[in-house]
Write a structure and sequence with these properties.
It is a single chain. Helix content is 43%, strand content 20%. It is of the alpha/beta class and 293 residues long. The protein is built from 11 helices and 12 strands. The longest helix has 25 residues. The strands form 4 sheets. Strands 4-3-5-12-6 form a 5-stranded mixed β-sheet, sandwiched between helices. It has a 3-stranded antiparallel β-sheet with strand order 10-7-11, covered by helices on one side. Strands 1-2 form a two-stranded antiparallel ribbon.
């Protein structure tokens, strides 16, 4: 037997709604048209699929079997469509996004995951850059959209996105336990773990600490925030990280810094020629920023 996919989709809606009327509404069909399709399915199967009652329909055993297999066939068809579509060449230029290391840790991946799922027709090129470099790239039209920090003067169009203030983290029950805040000068008295010297966060902090800041002892320097947070949580040393980078369910002490430079925020920044798809991606970045991590 050969089945029409729209007939199968209609039948699954009828089964879920408990009425042909409900199934017809979801398929945007008239009731007579939907009824005719169901009768044709029953004729093809040569067995009753529904029990008609005054207030709706019930599935016969054969109907329940058909509904179950129809859902599997439709789900597999959706996966097939997605798999084939992934080979299609985008007819538009990729959206060009620039962002700093902090935003690249959770914010940008979360936004890309939903954007690329919801908009298979668009591709995205992502580059990690410090804010000062991102501003120049956006101003030159070499990127469409950026996630930058709020401390860099710019004439770009910007909008608030998310808090990106820095905190100190350490092992649960350790030296930060019970503290409501701490100054960097005191943090530097403890063994630390940090990011590589060339990382945007390390360079940003060094620019603000200046040459006369206390010289900390770093037990190790690592390339990613994920590794840094793992080490600090395990007790390898204290670490200074963006608050948003630490999951709320992580068993770690979190202590705000008293230093004014630790308070900062992310902004969305647009180039003057940002195409419409960049605004769609911006909406996903806003949604990702609204989720408490």
């Amino acid at each position: 037997m050969r089945y029409d996919l729209d007939d199968l989709r209609l039948f699954t809606h009828v089964a879920a709604e408990g009425s042909i009327t409900g199934g017809a509404r979801l398929m945007h069909l008239s009731l007579p048209s939907a009824s005719a399709r169901i009768r044709a399915l029953e004729a093809q199967a040569d067995v009753p699929l529904l029990i008609r009652e005054r207030r709706g329909v019930r599935l016969t055993p054969a109907g329940a079997t058909l509904a179950r297999h129809a859902r599997e066939v439709l789900a597999e068809t959706t996966r097939l469509d997605s798999a084939v579509a992934s080979y299609a060449v985008s007819r538009t230029a990729p959206i060009r996004l620039v962002a700093g290391g902090s935003a690249m840790h959770q914010l940008v991946p979360a936004a890309l995951a939903t954007f690329l799922r919801d908009h298979p027709e668009y591709d995205v090129n992502v580059r990690e850059r410090r804010t000062i470099r991102s501003v120049r790239i956006l101003a030159a039209g070499e990127a469409d959209l950026g996630v930058i920090l709020d401390d860099e003067p710019t004439e770009l169009r910007t909008e608030p996105l998310a808090d990106d203030s820095l905190v100190v983290i350490g092992q649960a029950g350790g030296v930060l336990s019970g503290r409501t805040s701490i100054a960097y000068a005191e943090v530097a008295e403890h063994p630390l773990v940090g990011l590589d010297r060339g990382s945007p966060l390390t360079q940003w902090m060094e620019d603000r600490l200046g040459p006369h800041a206390p010289a900390p002892r770093y037990r190790t320097l690592v390339p990613t925030l994920h590794t840094l947070i793992t080490l600090a949580t395990a007790g390898a040393g204290l670490a200074i990280v963006p608050r948003r980078s630490v999951d709320t369910n992580t068993a770690v002490e979190i202590c705000p810094l008293q230093d004014t430079w630790s308070t900062r925020a992310h902004l969305l920044a647009y180039s003057s020629t940002a195409p419409e798809p960049a605004h769609l991606l911006a909406a996903h970045l806003r949604a990702a920023a609204s989720v408490r991590v």
